[in-house]
Amino acid sequence: MEIKEIHNFNVYEESDFIKIQNELKKKIMLKNTFNKSSIRLVAGVDLAYWEYKNKQYGTCSIVVIDYNTKEVVEKVNSVGEIKVPYIPGFLAFRELPLVIEASKKLVVEPDIFMFDGNGYLHFNHMGIATHASFFLDKPTIGVAKSYLKVNGVDFKMPEGKESSYTDIIINGEVYGRVLRTRKDVKPIFISCGNNVDLETCTEIVLKLINRESRLPIPTRLADLETHISRRKLR
């Protein structure tokens, strides 16, 4: 799969991170740039970490499934040293090099990428799912297992029934959605990455839920693959 070179990753200062985010967020599109009926392949993306000899390493797994049959079409991995420390709000600068490396190995071309992380639900609207979209040149969705509090705003818990949700509204703007994917299980936190609207994000996520998890199949399988890869590499 061809990847766009939007910027390099030889930056390590927060001021540089913010400058790049501010430039990219001007280009975010919270509208569908595709026909929903044309969706065929959806990719799930996740990473796992470990330490060895005082250095931190990571592995990225991408699992592509058929949107209709839910069957796995392709799996790829990348591995490398992590050189950017964890700084809240700047996860993309830490993870994207491995995401890009793994994406380049894909033979198939996914229609949508789904990330274990946030997109528009971010203090600067530039979570990993949104940031990655500019390199991948594909619509992206953020699916987080836990809530990233922005500007001190808490979320409102949705009803306990399947498919119920509440929107996360901060300063009058919808940042994301708290979605109950299965009855009486913990909700997940979804947000647009780029080139997709929130209603479509919700529809896609719910279609990719099965009885094995509250998480959509692509990111759940990617999570499992990262743990398999990490065990082998460690």
Automatic annotation (TrEMBL):
HAMAP family the UniProt entry points to: Endonuclease_5
Gene symbol of the encoding locus: nfi
UniProt cofactor(s): Mg(2+)
The enzyme's E.C. designation: 3.1.21.7
Organism per entry: Clostridium brassicae
Positions marked as site (Interaction with target DNA): Y86
Alphabetically ordered keywords of this record: Cytoplasm, DNA damage, DNA repair, Endonuclease, Hydrolase, Magnesium, Metal-binding, Nuclease
Name of a matching Pfam family: Endonuclease_5
CDD domains: Endonuclease_V (cd06559)
Task of the protein: DNA repair enzyme involved in the repair of deaminated bases. Selectively cleaves double-stranded DNA at the second phosphodiester bond 3' to a deoxyinosine leaving behind the intact lesion on the nicked DNA.
Protein name: Endonuclease V
Keyword Metal-binding applies: yes
GO molecular function, a single term: endonuclease activity
Class of the enzyme per the UniProt entry, highest EC level: hydrolase
Recorded catalytic activity of this chain's protein: Endonucleolytic cleavage at apurinic or apyrimidinic sites to products with a 5'-phosphate
